[in-house]
Amino acid sequence: MVERIKAVEDEAISRLNEIKNLQELEAWRIRYLGKKGLLTELVKNLKNIPTEDRPHFGKNLNITKNKLENIIKEKRVTLESADKEKKIKSSAVDITMPGKGIKRGKLHPITQVMNEVVDIFLRLGFSIADGPDIETDYYNFEALNIPKHHASRDMWSTLYIEKDTLLRTHTSPVQIRVMEKKKPPLAIIAPGKVYRRDADVTHSTVFHQVEGFMVDKNITFADLKGTLTALLHAIFGKAKRVRFRPSYFPFTEPSAEVDVECVNCGGKGKLSNGESCRVCKETGWLEILGCGMIDPNVFKNLKYDPDKYSGYAFGMGIERIAMLKFGISDIRLFFENDLRFLKQF
Amino acid sequence: MKIPIKWLKEYVKFKLSPEDLAEKLTMAGTEVGAIEYHGGGIENVVCGKIKAVERNDAHLICEIDLGTEIIKTITDDLSLQVGDRVPVASDESKLAEGIHVKKIALSGVESFGMLCRPHELGLAKADHVMKLPLDAKIGMDVKKVLGKNGIVLDLDVLPNRGDLQSIIGVAREVAAVLNDKIQNPNVKLIETNRKVNIKVEVKDKELCPRYMARVIEGVKIKDSPQWIKEKLLLSGVRPINNVVDITNFVLLEYGQPLHAFDADKVDKIVVRKAKAGEKIKTLDEQELKLDSGILVIADSKKPIAVAGIMGGIGTEVALNTQNILLESAFFNPISINKTSQMLKLRSESSVRFGKGVDWDGVAAALDRAAQLIAELGEGKILAGKIDKKAKSRKCKQLAIRVENTNRLLGTKLKAAEIIKILGRLGFKKIKSSMKSVTVSVPLSRFGDIEREVDLVEEVARIYGYDKIDTTISRVSQELSTDAFEKNSRKIKEILAGAGLYEVQTFSILDPKYPERLGLEADYIPIANPLTEDESVLRTIMLPSILKAVDHNLRHQIDDLGIFEVGKVYHKAKSYVETNMLAGALTGQGADFFALKGIIETLLFEFGSSKFESIQSNLLHPGQSAGIIFENKAVGWFGELNPDISKRYDFKKPVYVFEINLEVLFSAIKLTKKCKPLPKFPKSDRDVAMFIKDSVTHAGILETIREVGGSMVEDIQLFDVYKNSRAYRITYRDKNRTLTVDEVNAKHEEILKSLTTKLGVELRK
């Protein structure tokens, strides 16, 4: 009996060495350790052995069984890890192959810049208002302190629909429309399309502006400076210098033009190769927006008391900002809507 | 406004470089658009002295001393004389852009070099060879001869600063900015005993509140002296003759437009409104029809000038003129602007009168010009001057409150500082306290400085905007929902996420668009369009979208999906503007259902949508659908009608859509309410079938729902091939677990109904 046990053990160990994969290992297990395996059969055979010999054989059988079970465990670990490695190897991919495309479109660069500007003001507590593209002479000009035949009307080349009806030349009429309906405190921005009778590489008959204004007691020119400086730093970066210089708009007094350090030459007026900067025409500054303290005449039309309330207003062209931000030299590109252009932003 | 630096320095002394001065002026509100260096880029042009001239047909042969050599040059300028100093270029010279020197031989005489006209040196255009000052050194580089004469500041004068349209005005501003004083020209008139004899009658004192005139007799019309010509050229004005040049010179110096009439051709002066039907031929040879709103200068019979804008032919100063009637006036700015717009006539005069001239300058400029004409034209000034005025104008007095100034600016200025700043600008203090300062406004600022706030601006700009603090304040206003912005941004994000690119198109279009789309032309036209292509407001988004499609297809971008949120415009009782969403899909992967999927995905964000068949001339009759959102018709989509496609020359089908955002947004249900999640399991059963052409998806759903009732939770179409359809029906009861027998029985019932009602053939 002991010999038979030994013979099974020897055979099992020698066969194990030839095993190359998990299936063969499983067949091996069944042959020796399975329900009907050779070793199991021997265990079953114990009952035919004289009672006094059973403990001896039983002990031997147990030793062999444990030995084989340990061997198979080890072998399984080795084979499994080899198997895993093989699987990983065979499922490796060429990571330079293209991703499976989720086709995504993009927002127009004008919208992107517009949203950026609007979001900055929303965070500062402003609300959005809008007004019609087809405006009256009253809202577009007269209520903004630009009387008929005044020299300052030359500042806007206007497209007319009929007498006293026109395509708004700026988003400023929204100021009047809001203030007619509401009382201070007010902090409003009005994004939208505007129209001028003017077209070249930097001027478009249709373009976009964001108008903004704040009216309350004790709103100062210093507030205007602080707010717009924050805006321009958010758009162009904190390192950029910003300057306010006196200007003239009929609807603000005092008025200012806001310049930001040239994004192309860093405010030097010359490029690093010594050539003169065309973006800022060598001035080192880029004119970005117009602003000022709302003129008392505007308040008077609205029956606001200019001694009680003060406010600032500003207006900026979105295309201009987008052109500077993205390095676009021809405004017409925005409206051609060439996908090769739109994909870049 | 062009300001030659050297001329400016005759009135205000400063040592700043042109760049530093430009910076200071800019930061005080007068932007220097450019600093021009005349003679810049000019190389190897030297000063030569004419030693001898010889006439040869239509030319002069000049012998010119260059210091190192003497050359012979041919010129067609017959006015040159021995002794003149002129700029001489050789074939090695560099001249103003685009101009080259060529060696030529005329009438057998070889010519070396060229005598330069001003524009060839980058100055204003002129007929004659430029004459350099008589003390210029022979052989000297012409850049050195012109020296700082050649530096010109080009100012962008703001519309409210009529007072800066003159050298003296700018000198005043420079003095204020630099805290310095100005030196006015010294005008001394010598009058003859004889008195001014012309009769002047101002009939409209509203439009002409002041009219002044002098008469100078025995004037010799000739070339101006070099110093005048040089200043005019640097200022961009072409010299003509001494009298005209002097009026232009004084216009530049004082900002006061003057007009010189030939006194012998004018019997009297009547300032009046034109009579209907009157005509005038102006100096630029236009025949203008006048109407009764237009102010004219007339003689006893007819208009001889459009007041303040342009003189007429027939009374102008000519070579044989001897006696000059010199006009200096103040015309109503509004009336000048109106007339200038109406006649489409702009001049140096109209621009200045349109912004308002200096009341006192009317007299000062008249005397200055009379003095110069007498001196340079050897004329005699008749005693006295005509001065017809409505009433004298006095300096306005204005108060500025210290607290109000600081309230607006956010500064902490004191009365003394305000007085000092205003003093620099020529505002004289009348009285002051800690709280308030009263000043008198110089007449040169009349019309610009009329209110307290105008003084506040003057204080701010001279104080320096850069010295004012930067603060941020917030206001406590009611929060707005900004619903349109929120929803339209959502739309844009969803559509971009679905692979479409946002476009931005013009809302003004070519009036031919309705014809291409087979629509009625009911657009709103623009009265004064810039181009035909941009002359009407669109009533529909489609043509703008198709324009963008067309651009891309023409540039070999064949696969595209685009959309836009924009407005369309209609005229009803008033003008109506409607916010729309529109877009297009074409090329690879584009079909009716691709677009439908995008629209479904979009609308799923806002509520429930369905589709119904519609008839539209814009769409393919078999591939067109109306979009219903929360039971409201909000738009349409489908394949662009092949007829329209053909007109656009589109080779592949284009799928288009348009949604009215006003209707869509108003139909959005504001509240979203949570439903409990199912507690009991579902059972799925599939059904596959062949259908007849007449059977629709909607019909199948309807049949299943009808029979299935509340047991059917969901129906998914999961396979389509030709007329074969496969659906998965999900059964569930929200209160208990359904038994297999129950589900099977209901499913059998549904299958039977599909067969009997719709005649489908079940696939086993």
Report on this model:
The complex is a heterodimer of chains A (345) and B (764). Chain A is of the alpha+beta class. Chain A has 2 domains: 2-90; 109-342, Bira Bifunctional Protein, Domain 2 (BirA Bifunctional Protein, domain 2, 2-Layer Sandwich). Chain A has helices spanning 2-17, 22-33, 38-45, 54-90, 109-123, 137-140, 173-181, 221-236, 296-301, 318-326, 333-336, 339-342; strands at residues 127-128, 134-136, 160-162, 165-167, 186-195, 206-216, 242-249, 252-261, 285-294, 310-317. In chain A, the strands form 2 sheets. Chain A has a 7-stranded mixed β-sheet, with helices on both faces. In chain A, strands 2-4-3 form a 3-stranded antiparallel β-sheet. Chain B folds into 6 domains: 2-30 and 157-178, 2-Layer Sandwich (Phenylalanyl-tRNA Synthetase, Chain B, domain 1); 43-152, OB fold (Dihydrolipoamide Acetyltransferase, E2P) (Beta Barrel), CATH 2.40.50; 191-389, Phenylalanyl-tRNA Synthetase, Chain B, domain 3, CATH 3.50.40; 396-464, Phenylalanyl-tRNA Synthetase, Chain B, domain 1; 483-667, Bira Bifunctional Protein, Domain 2 (BirA Bifunctional Protein, domain 2); 683-762, 2-Layer Sandwich (Alpha-Beta Plaits). In chain B, β3 and β4 (59-65) form a beta hairpin. Chain B is elongated and about 130 Å long. The mean pLDDT of chain B is 91. Chains A and B meet through α5, β1, β3, β5 and β6 of A and α7, α10, α12, α13 and β27 of B.
Strand order of the largest sheet of chain B: 27-31-32-36-35-34-33
CATH class of the largest domain in chain A: Alpha Beta
What percentage of amino acids of chain B are in beta strands? 25-35%
Mean pLDDT of chain B: 91
CATH structural architecture of the largest domain in chain A:
2-Layer Sandwich
Shape of chain B: elongated
Q: Which CATH class of the largest domain in chain B is shown?
A: Alpha Beta
